[in-house]
Amino acid sequence: MNKEELKKRTKEFALRVIRLVEALPRTSTSQVIGNQLLRSATSVAANYRAACRACSPAAFVYKLGIVEEEADESLFWLEMIVETGLMPANRVQGLLQEANELTAIFVASRKTAKGR
After folding, report:
1. pLDDT at 1 over 90
2. How far apart are CA 6 and CA 49, in angstroms?
3. Does the 3-115 domain belong in CATH 3.20.20.10?
4. Which pLDDT does position 40 carry in this prediction?
5. CA–CA separation, 102 vs 96, rounded Å?
């Protein structure tokens, strides 16, 4: 997967999360969890774009670390949506899988970039 494809994939992840958050019930719990998920998922895409524009290898590795953390945090909030019963697991499964895959991609990318 090249950087343009990954930019598109992270942006699509953010858009899917936005749609999910909009579908959450209107409760105080879902507002808090939804806002946290929205922040972390959109940060994955935004910080990956920033990493692609990094002016040095060290800056690239640093930004990838942020992307990795935000992808993992998104996974956490998606799990919380299911475990609190805000939405059934089958409605969130695709996003859970994507958050897992993105986290794995950025862990591996950061290790590779750091080793160079």
Report:
1. no
2. 9
3. no
4. 98
5. 10
